[in-house]
């Protein structure tokens, strides 16, 4: 069906060497093409909406380094701010004024955040927020949702999304049962299941954590009333509500999902976009809760490189760019055109498909749908997705190598990029 036009000789050589050096040849499992077949493309450079591999092939990119590249890769203003910051050193291990700047920006933007702590990744942010939930409430149990991913810490590796779902892994070996016995799970968008868990564990649940818009089982939006219902239940139960906005923060709106849907959680985790492509995560929320974090309070959490000036600089410049008028309208317009077009092309070619977008986050499932949760997502045609993925790659379109990952656009994506992508989709989907 598809011509194997792509020359990936150098990628193959580098990946073959990498497999002898690193488990699976990658530094993070989702980068491997295990669920879609073939070998990963080894990147050489990135710019705007485009990426180039080591063989010189060019692709329009809808992964955006898994979310951070919302202004476009290697944005000139981010690079120039970084070059300036670099001259002053890469890490201080002491307070730095840039932390205040980014903290003020986050507090100003994200409704729930009155105080913030910077860390180095989304995983770290989620680990710390759970410790804080437990410290503040004096309760140990946690509710998470099937197919949601909150990083790779032990207590979240229960029915997790992202790479765990992509690779079809069971809950990971090496995670002590004692750790996950306090992790309770419910299907996403199922308020009744949450109520039942609270009823079965009275006074024991510290809180509920969720992706307010799911990106790690593919793109799944919350049903009307789901977030508000969780807010109400947690309040009634004296438990905390935590939005993991590592993916959605500054992506689906400047103030994240909580701004978009008008529901304010007690605590929020952030990552990806706030680092502008450098390693940053953060957790924040109500002042009374955050005041428990050391050294203000007794809950310990620390980090050698946390709040380093380079990462802060990339974050500050990225948020500054996003704060300019029209950013989110632009993301919404371009992404709307993309997903509407993709769904139409798929349907025109006889494929059962459903999908959607919010601002610069989108997804498509090869199933009639609707998809409300991970079980629904699993019913989508994985083999078809793999063929689609390979076909699009050969047409110069780089999609996440997994049916269980959302796609991302950026401010650098143009109408021409979208037109080219839809043309590619027509070639691929008409031949499947
Ligand atoms: C919602 C969510 N939480 C947490 C994480 C973990 O973040 P990191 O990969 O930076 O550790 C991710 C990563 O994809 C995520 O999407």
- Sheet with most strands: 7 strands, mixed
- Domain count: the total is 2
**Which CATH architecture of the largest domain?**
3-Layer(aba) Sandwich
What name goes with the CATH superfamily of the largest domain? Type I PLP-dependent aspartate aminotransferase-like (Major domain)
Task: Bin the strand percentage.
Answer: 5-15%
- What would the average pLDDT be, to the nearest integer? 95
- The helix/strand series, from N terminus to C terminus, equals HEEEHHEHEHHEHEHEHEEHHHEEHHEEH
**Computed structural class:** alpha/beta
Radius of gyration: 21 Å
Question: Rough shape?
Answer: globular
Tally of separate helices: 15
Bound molecules: pyridoxal-5'-phosphate
Widest sheet: strand order? 4-10-9-8-7-5-6
Classified by CATH, the class of the largest domain is Alpha Beta
* Uncertain runs: none
N- to C-terminal distance: 8 Å
Under CATH, the topology of the largest domain is which?
Aspartate Aminotransferase, domain 2
Number of DSSP strand runs: 14
Estimated helix fraction: 25-40%
Family: Belongs to the class-III pyridoxal-phosphate-dependent aminotransferase family. HemL subfamily.
GO cellular component, one term: cytoplasm
Keywords: Chlorophyll biosynthesis, Cytoplasm, Isomerase, Porphyrin biosynthesis, Pyridoxal phosphate
Pfam families: Aminotran_3
């Amino acid at each position: 069906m598809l011509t194997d036009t792509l020359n990936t000789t150098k990628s193959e050589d580098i990946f073959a060497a990498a497999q002898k050096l690193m488990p699976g040849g990658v530094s993070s499992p989702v980068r491997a093409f295990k669920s879609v077949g073939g070998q990963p493309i080894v990147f050489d450079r990135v710019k705007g909406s485009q990426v180039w591999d080591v063989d010189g092939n060019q692709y329009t990119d809808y992964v955006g380094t898994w979310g951070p590249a919302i202004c476009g890769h290697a944005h000139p203003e981010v690079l120039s701010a970084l070059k300036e910051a670099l001259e002053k050193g890469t890490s201080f291990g002491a307070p730095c004024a840039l932390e205040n700047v980014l903290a003020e920006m986050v507090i100003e933007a994200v409704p729930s955040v009155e105080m913030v702590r910077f860390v180095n990744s989304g995983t770290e942010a989620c680990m710390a927020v759970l410790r804080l939930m437990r410290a503040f409430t004096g309760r140990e149990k946690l509710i998470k949702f099937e197919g949601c991913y909150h990083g790779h810490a032990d207590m979240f590796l229960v029915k997790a999304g992202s790479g765990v779902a992509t690779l079809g892994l069971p809950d990971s070996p090496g995670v002590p049962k004692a750790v996950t016995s306090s992790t309770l799970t419910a299907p996403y968008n199922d308020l009744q299941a949450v109520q039942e868990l609270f009823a079965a564990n009275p006074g024991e649940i510290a809180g509920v954590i969720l992706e307010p818009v799911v990106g790690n089982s593919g793109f799944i939006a919350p049903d009307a009333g789901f977030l508000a219902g969780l807010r109400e239940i947690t309040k009634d139960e004296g438990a905390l509500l935590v939005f993991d906005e590592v993916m959605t923060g500054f992506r689906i709106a400047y103030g994240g999902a909580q701004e978009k849907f008008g529901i304010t959680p007690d605590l929020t985790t952030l990552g990806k976009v706030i680092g502008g492509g450098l390693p940053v995560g953060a957790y924040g929320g109500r002042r009374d809760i955050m005041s428990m974090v050391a050294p203000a309070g007794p809950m310990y959490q620390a980090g050698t490189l946390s709040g380093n000036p380079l990462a802060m600089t990339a974050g500050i410049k990225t948020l500054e760019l996003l704060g300019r008028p029209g950013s989110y309208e632009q993301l919404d317009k371009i992404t709307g055109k993309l997903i509407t077009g993709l769904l139409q092309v798929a349907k025109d070619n006889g494929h059962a498909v459903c999908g959607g977008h919010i601002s610069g986050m989108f997804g498509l499932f090869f199933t009639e749908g609707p998809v409300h949760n991970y079980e629904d997502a699993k019913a989508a045609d994985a083999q078809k997705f793999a063929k689609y993925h390979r076909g699009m790659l050969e047409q110069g379109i780089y999609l996440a190598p997994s049916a269980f990952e959302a796609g991302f656009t950026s401010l650098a994506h143009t109408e021409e990029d979208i037109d080219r992508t839809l043309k590619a989709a027509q070639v691929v989907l008409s031949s499947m």
